[in-house]
Automatic annotation (TrEMBL):
This is ABC transporter substrate-binding protein. It is found in: Cell envelope. It comes from [Mycobacterium] burgundiense. Its main location: other. Keywords: Signal. Belongs to the bacterial solute-binding protein 3 family. Pfam families: SBP_bac_3 (PF00497). Residues 69-294 form the Solute-binding protein family 3/N-terminal domain. InterPro entries: SBP_3_CS (IPR018313), Solute-binding_3/MltF_N (IPR001638). Transmembrane segments: none annotated.
Length: 307
């Protein structure tokens, strides 16, 4: 959707979450709705050292090439993709990947913070060369900008190890979510109704103001499972020191993409740079470093919206 209030949502499917750390046997977390950005410890950033590939760099539009910079609009926070570490530095999966892309193109990345809803208009107006803020590539957005896909995200569940929860049949279970999200308003109510229609107990939907509290409820045994955005759940699992495990597979997936000006040759340059990083293994290294390797794609495309 286009408005700032709708943020990353496409329809009602994309939402803001939080980052997760382990502290004193529990999870100490920071909610995205908070006024602070203290995401706590993060994996070592920049796990790869990409270098310029002249053949690919030659495809960058002349005005961008002459500036020597890749100006990137970003909205903070959305861990583990883009957020600030305790020192105030912008870090995350998206950041490490974009840094490697810029290096491949022979450019210096310049990150400029923005309201989410203003990034695409700023790209259209020439203020930013590209957006990097976990944008879902949708048909509606493709009418305004072009997208280069780089990741696949959806919904994923997590539980305490061995809890035996089934996301397709959680009747009578307590499932934690962040309030007003797709899981709270659409996914779980529909699944709960299917339970009661079949004469089974309803799902007890435990809605929390922040994803931090929702995830903590599972760790503390107050909820049986949590349903959330796949990259955030995968990051939570990686940071939990064995206190959480994935249930089943990611579902309702759609591509994330980098928006660029409609018709810009930068789209093809970004696509070629990402293809190169996939071939070298650097893409996988970066994704694995942030615990989001299950969302990796095999081949980036321009305008790959599924709806």
């Amino acid at each position: 959707m286009k408005s700032a209030l709708q943020g990353r949502r496409s329809g009602a499917r994309w939402w803001r979450w939080t980052t997760i750390l382990v502290a004193s046997g529990a999870l100490a977390l920071s909610g995205c709705s908070s006024s602070t950005d203290s995401a706590g410890e993060s994996p070592e950033s920049s796990p790869v050292a990409a270098s310029v590939v002249e053949e690919i760099a030659a495809t960058v539009p002349e005005d961008i090439k002459a500036s020597g910079k890749l100006v990137i609009g970003v909205n903070i926070p959305y861990p583990p993709n883009e957020f600030k570490d305790p020192s105030g530095k912008i870090v995350g999966f998206d950041v490490d990947l974009m840094n490697a892309i810029a290096e491949t193109l022979g450019l210096t990345p310049e990150y400029r913070e923005s309201d989410f809803g203003k990034i695409i208009p700023a790209i259209q107006g020439g203020t930013y060369n590209v957006g990097m803020s976990s944008f879902t590539d949708t048909k509606e957005r493709e009418a305004s900008v072009d997208f280069v896909t780089y990741f696949s995200a959806g919904t994923l569940w997590a539980q305490r190890p061995g809890a035996g929860i089934d996301p397709t049949d959680a009747c009578g279970k307590k499932v934690a979510v962040q309030a007003t999200t797709h899981q709270d308003t659409t996914e779980l109510p529909a699944k709960s109704k299917a339970c009661t229609d079949a004469g089974k107990p309803a799902i007890e939907i435990m809605a929390f103001d922040g994803q931090d509290a929702a995830t903590n409820a599972v760790v503390l045994g107050q909820a049986d499972a949590v349903s959330a955005d796949s990259p955030v759940v995968l990051y939570a699992i990686k940071q939990s020191n064995g206190k959480l495990e994935q249930i089943g597979e990611v579902f309702d997936s759609a591509p994330y993409g980098w928006p660029v000006a409609k018709g810009s040759a930068l789209a093809a340059a970004l696509q070629k740079a990402l293809e190169h990083l996939i071939e070298t293994g650097d893409y996988e290294t970066i994704a694995t470093n942030w615990g989001v390797e299950q969302g990796m794609i095999d081949k980036p495309v321009i305008n790959g919206a599924v709806n």
